[in-house]
Every structure is written in structure tokens, then in C-alpha cells.
Design brief:
Layout (H helix, E strand, L loop, with lengths): L1 E6 L4 H10 L7 E7 L5 H8 L4 E3 L8 H15 L3 E4 L8 H4 L6 E5 L11 H7 L4 E8 L9 E8 L6 H25 L13 E2 L2
Helix pairs in contact: 1-6, 5-6
Bound molecules: 5-O-phosphono-beta-D-ribofuranosylamine (GRF).
5-O-phosphono-beta-D-ribofuranosylamine (GRF) binds next to helix 1 and helix 6.
InterPro entries: Formyl_transf_N, Formyl_transf_N_sf, GART, GART_AS
Function: Catalyzes the transfer of a formyl group from 10-formyltetrahydrofolate to 5-phospho-ribosyl-glycinamide (GAR), producing 5-phospho-ribosyl-N-formylglycinamide (FGAR) and tetrahydrofolate.
EC number: 2.1.2.2
Length: 203
């Protein structure tokens, strides 16, 4: 399966997927990395692996529609089967999603539906949670609310800061995302690619 990954920042999740996908038996290939930031650190990481990159700066476009239209047109060049959002900090409209319905994955650093949006680690700590974690879900036009494909859990330890918790969760994000992409691309997630069936808890 051909995958285009979307980043806005450091791209550590994209890098984890790209490294996993380099294995000959991995059922997906990262064919391009798209970013909405020209200075996203992940762009250099992708280029170092020989993966083509494209940047689409919102300020270069008169509207969100025009920005999304350019990205959709560029996507057609790469013929992706799947899109993987990986630290991509922009909401996709229903019109953008429609041609890729059910084929856009996202990684979010909380146990959704708890803590959608930003600053998830501080919010989990403030709420007195004893566990946190990350979620891979299918993307719909809402924010962090599409069908959940898989989750990984980490403990919140006494004295944890948002940074120490983020670091613990990030390790699990990388492990979870590469496993879910492999399963989704191979159609081996429970229930194949039918999101209604494919909820699994990964140990
Ligand atoms: C990660 O926690 C990711 O879940 C969130 O941003 C953080 C950095 O992601 N969206 P990455 O290193 O850019 O993949």
C-alpha cells in the first residue's frame, strides 16, 4: 500500500513509520511526506531517507479550500492508498476527506475520547489520571473523533511533568502506529478495514 504521511513538526512518528516501512515485508511504503510548515524538522528526516517531500503553506493560499485543493491535486501525483497524519496540526474538511474516506489514519497522544485537542499530557496530569497513552483512529471531519483503531496505555507516575509523560507516551506512539499501519495496510486488523469491527487492544 502507498502511503503519504502528513507532518507539521519534528516528524518522529513519520520517521518511525518510514523506518518500519523500509523492511521488505512491510505491507506499506511511505511514498511522500507532505507538510504545512516549510521548516518542519521532519522534512529533513524524510529527505535523508530519500522520501520525496512537499510543503503547502497556508499563507500562500487565499482560503482553506484553495490550500486543500492544492494538497489534493498534489496527492493525485503520488496515488496514495492511505494517508497517515503524524503530528499534523491542521483539521481536514469533509470535502478533503471524502475521496479518502476510511483511509486516513491519525495518531493522538491521549486515550481518546479523553483529551481531544492540544496539551493532552498536562490535562491528563491535572485530571489526576493514573494512566495515559495514545490512540490511532480513522480521521473524520471532527477533531480527534473518528473510529478508534487501537490504543496503547502508559502509567502516569508520581512527579510526572507534561514533558516526562510526553516522552513515555511518544515511545508507545511510534510502536503503536507502525503496528496499526502494518495491520491496516495488510487488511489484518480485526474486521479488515471496516472501522466498526477493527477495535483492538495492543499489549
Ligand atoms: C506527538 O505526541 C504526536 O502525537 C503529536 O505531536 C507530537 C510530536 O509528533 N501530534 P511528531 O514527533 O511530530 O511525530
Amino acid at each position: 500500500k502507498r502511503v503519504v504521511a502528513f507532518i507539521s513538526g519534528g516528524g518522529s512518528n513519520m520517521l518511525a513509520l518510514a523506518k518500519a516501512a523500509a523492511a521488505p515485508d512491510f505491507p506499506a511504503e511511505i511514498v511522500a511526506v507532505f507538510s504545512d510548515k516549510a521548516d518542519a524538522g521532519g522534512l529533513a528526516k524524510a529527505e535523508a531517507l530519500g522520501i520525496p517531500t512537499r510543503s503547502f503553506l497556508r499563507k500562500d493560499f487565499a482560503s482553506k479550500d484553495a490550500h486543500e485543493a492544492e494538497i489534493l491535486a498534489a496527492l493525485a501525483d503520488y496515488r496514495p492508498d492511505l494517508l497517515c497524519l503524524a503530528g499534523y496540526m491542521r483539521l481536514l474538511s469533509a470535502d478533503f476527506i471524502r475521496p479518502y474516506e476510511g483511509r486516513i489514519l491519525n495518531i493522538h497522544p491521549s486515550l481518546l475520547p479523553l483529551f481531544p485537542g492540544l496539551h493532552t499530557h498536562q490535562r491528563a496530569i491535572n485530571a489526576g489520571m493514573r494512566v495515559s497513552g495514545c490512540t490511532v483512529h480513522l480521521v473524520n471531519a471532527g477533531m480527534d473523533e473518528g473510529p478508534i483503531l487501537a490504543q496503547a496505555v502508559v502509567p502516569i507516575l508520581d512527579g510526572d511533568t507534561a514533558d516526562s509523560l510526553a516522552a513515555r507516551v511518544l515511545v508507545q506512539e511510534h510502536a503503536l502506529y507502525r503496528r496499526v499501519l502494518a495491520g491496516f495496510a495488510a487488511g489484518t486488523l480485526p474486521g479488515g478495514t471496516d472501522p466498526a469491527q477493527s477495535v483492538l487492544s495492543l499489549g
